[in-house]
Write a structure and sequence with these properties.
Layout lengths: L1 E10 H11 L1 H7 L2 H9 L4 H19 L14 E5 L5 E5 L7 E10 L3 E10 L1
Antiparallel strand pairs: 1-5, 2-3, 4-5
Helix pairs in contact: 1-4, 3-4
Length: 124
């Protein structure tokens, strides 16, 4: 069993600027419908949640990249981060399968200026 990890940090202002400059085009390119619905429901903190998911997607890619072959093309929307009923984020890979991956775990955190995410993947 091999454990891989990925981490990412991003300035919330960069995501806010991208959303304000590009609007729906940016949101629909990077986030799934469920992610957009969740972040928009967070009203005053929506940019923190968008940034957290953006960092999460980057961290997931870093963690699974050792198992990705050239034949895989992973886009932003192939990685979906949604919260369970207790508010805990989880990762769903959409239309991709990572051979030998047993488990993937994510933690997201944010403050006023930054959002960060850490991912751990267990691979056979």
């Amino acid at each position: 069993m091999k454990i891989t990890c990925g981490t990412d940090i991003i300035e919330i202002g960069r995501i806010k600027d991208s959303i304000e400059d590009m609007g729906e085009r940016f949101l629909e390119r990077v986030f799934t419908k469920k992610e957009i619905e969740y972040c928009e429901s967070r009203r005053n903190q929506k940019y923190q949640h968008y940034a957290g998911r953006f960092a999460g997607k980057e961290a997931v890619f870093k963690a699974i990249s050792p198992k990705i072959k050239d034949k895989y093309e992973i886009g932003w929307k192939n990685i979906e981060i949604i919260n369970d009923e207790n508010g805990r984020p989880s990762v769903h890979l959409v239309d991709i399968e990572i051979q030998g991956m047993d488990e993937i775990d994510i933690s997201i955190s944010h403050c006023k200026q930054y959002a960060t995410a850490n991912v751990v993947v267990m691979i056979r």
